[in-house]
From TrEMBL:
Stored InterPro entries: DDH_dom, DHH_sf, DHHA1_dom, SSDNA_exonuclease_RecJ
Domain DDH residues, every copy: 30-149
Start and end residues of each DHHA1 domain: 367-465
Organism: Hadarchaeum yellowstonense
Top-level taxon of the source organism: Archaea
Record Gene3D superfamilies: 3.90.1640.30
Protein name: Uncharacterized protein
Gene Ontology MF annotations: exonuclease activity; nucleic acid binding
Amino acid sequence: MGRAEIKRFRRGAEEVAVFLKPRLDGKTRIKVISHTDADGIAAAAILARCLYAYNVPFSVKLSRPPSEEDIAQLAAEGQDLYIFLDQGSGQLDAINKHLLARQKEVIVIDHHPGQFLEHPKFSCLNPHLCGLSGSTDVSASGATFSVVEQLDLRFRSLISLALVGAIGDRQELSSGFTGVNDTLLKRAVDLGLVRESEGLKLVRRSLVPAVECLRTSTRPYILGLSGNLASCRSLLDTLGLSHSSLISDLGLELERKLADAIFSKAGAQAVKEEFRRTLWGTILTAATDDLVGPKELGEYSAIIDACGNMKRPEIGFALAVGDGSYQMDALGLLSNYQEVVLRAMGWLVEKLASFKIAAGFRYLYAGDAVDAAILGEILSLAIESALIPMEQPVVGMADAADGYVKVSARATSRLVAEGVNLGRAISKAAAAVGGYGGGHDVSAAARIPRNRVEDFVVELEKAISSGSYEL
Ligand SMILES: [Mn+2]
């Protein structure tokens, strides 16, 4: 991937902006449909701030990727233009059938793989159509920003929200950003909108006392410290640090000391590069007041993501569009979510020896022991915490509603470079057992009937050994 692809992407963004501009006339009724995670919420907030500035009548719906019935229902709402963010590429058939066929106009700004559609009432932006990676080079919020900034320079400061979304989708690799994200960060720094520094990347480092920040740390989950208040206290005591100080106030030298103490406490876990890079690295901070609430982009991303995961995405959205009155609610949701994830990680650590080995991947069927909605997240956290060996992809399954099992699969960028494409493999295997699913090369999900779990494992073995290892 190089400059030519990034240029193509920028041209694609211009085309969508050209399609959108005349529809910001104040007469076109617009419906925005976006995802409930940090990237989806940030993308929706970027577009909403733009639509608001143009005084356009619009409403926003934050949900999981819509089913065909959901899209049929949207059509019945009687809006003029439907803008899908962070979704839509996988739903083009339904969009065509229920929206375009009824003279509705549609824009899809997405970074998931999908089909392609040519239609006079349709416009889209997707890195996959420009030779870029949708899992690392740009997320929905970066793509939405790329469109919006074409409309007016005053939207430029929303670039920090674009980075918040990319961080939420784990597009920041240990080596930094790539593709469009990399150009966004460089511009944000050049324009003085974002500052880069180095430090402990713990979530809530600027929000809660150090002892609490360590106790509830799940990214990374630190064996011997996470979930263990007494041992967090004694670690800080050894260093002579106050329990109540904020990690973000310590200064680089003390932060380094604390990092070293954590590394030695974590022992074998801390030998792993993955763990070290999750704990220590670049911290991005918004340098302007456009972002209401905490200024560290990683924390901001964690906050709005937690809102979505606690089923209150509208609170994260309200904060991201600049309503500071929701800040306390949002922080409360993050705090609750940290406890939920901490408990789930404690459970997973107990189960690490229970993963089964299949041909080409490792898997765990959790039954109803863990919330299916956060299983994918705890797999990601376990990988980032170097708790799971990753010479193969890892798959988690947990019971969901209505007799279904939710499947979450994760790989690493190294495995993807070797040819793994989980989105393709999961989609194939799920379809073979009467379920459905898909996603990115590095992370994918599916829903399958509960009585087909064993068949699914066999189908996934087949799908991974054929096809999915081809580049
Ligand atoms: Mn996304």
